[in-house]
Specification:
heterodimer; A: 139 residues; mainly alpha; 4 helices; B: 169 residues; Rna Polymerase Sigma Factor, Chain: A; Arc Repressor Mutant, subunit A; 0% strand; globular; transcription (chain B); DNA-binding (chain B); RNA_pol_sigma_r2 (chain B)
Chain lengths: 139, 169
């Protein structure tokens, strides 16, 4: 492309009046080796734009976030808590029952010893009765 | 929308999203994080995607907004590394060597532009969007886009000419 034309395009370019097609022409011109010496500063500019466009995003994009793991973790934690509270409650119930059982047993034991004391006394009374019958010779 | 279908619609412009994020956030790592986050957001809102005329334009607008939010929160945390903090440490020789590398010079010139001009330069001169698309993306009038773009291009050119003359003399 002739120089006059390029200069005109550059003027339009600076006023932001060029179309995309015209800007592509400018980019093509400045990427060639035949740039007029007085326009050399534009070469850096258009060269930079062209190289910038080649930059790529190289990492892989993850659509699942790590946040979901935290959510599952909290669900698991609450389950564990629930289970442990439940079993703890069960254990506690059992202990309570054992305690009541022991107390009842003790009370029953006490009752039975006292009852046995009663039978011994009655046995003595029976002895007394036998002796009395011997003496008075009842029919 | 199925995952494969989703990927087919959104993957073609992942580089554009990444480049826009990098233009605004500067660091590659942050741009990668932003891209990842953006695609995750798109995936979560996949049911709403078909309501949009152009998913690409929607994604670019989202990227822009997300990056602006990131920049705002970075400024708020006030741990930002300001250029002037370490510029003085450069030896003149080092600086001149960097500036002679004209491509990195253009990169720096764009970095110093206001956010809006950066965006317009990126969308027009790198990604080659039409003015109407840019106007819609940035929620501006097409004429305002032209004015911003013209300003940005003239600034870059002026700086380059200045640098060029300085190099020659």
């Amino acid at each position: 492309m002739e120089l006059a034309n390029i200069e005109k395009l550059l003027e339009k370019y600076l006023n932001a009046e060029t179309t995309i097609a015209e800007e592509k022409k400018l980019k093509a011109y400045f990427s060639s080796d035949f740039v007029a010496p007085h326009l050399v500063e534009y070469q850096a500019m258009f060269g930079y734009f062209s190289t910038s466009k080649n930059e790529r995003f190289t990492k892989t994009i993850q659509l699942k976030s790590q946040k979901r793991n935290w959510k599952w973790l909290s669900v698991a934690a609450s389950l564990v808590l629930l289970v442990s509270v439940y079993t703890g409650y069960q254990k506690n119930q059992q202990k309570e029952a054992e305690k009541v059982y022991a107390e009842t047993k003790q009370a029953l034991d006490l009752l039975s010893t006292n009852l046995n004391k009663g039978t011994v006394a009655i046995a003595q009374l029976q002895h007394f009765e036998d002796t009395k019958n011997k003496i008075f010779k009842q029919p | 929308m199925k995952q494969s279908e989703f990927l087919k619609t959104v993957m073609p412009f992942k580089d554009k999203v990444f480049r826009l994020a990098k233009r605004l956030l500067v660091s590659t790592e942050e741009a990668e994080d932003a891209t990842q986050e953006l695609y995750f957001k798109l995936w979560r809102n996949k049911s709403k995607l078909k309501d949009y005329k152009s998913i690409e334009a929607f994604a670019m607008t989202m990227t822009k907004n997300y990056c602006f939010d990131r920049l705002k929160s970075k400024q708020a945390s006030n741990l930002s590394l300001v250029h002037s903090n370490y510029q003085e440490k450069d030896t003149p020789l080092q600086r001149r060597m960097e500036l002679n590398d004209s491509v990195s010079l253009v990169h720096k010139l764009i970095e110093n532009l206001p956010e809006q001009q950066k965006l317009v330069i990126q969308l027009r001169d790198v990604e080659e969007y039409e003015f109407d698309e840019i106007a819609e993306l940035l929620n501006l009038q097409p004429t305002a886009v032209r004015v911003t773009l013209s300003r940005a291009r003239k600034t870059i050119r002026e700086q380059l000419t200045k640098q060029h003359n300085y190099g020659v003399s």
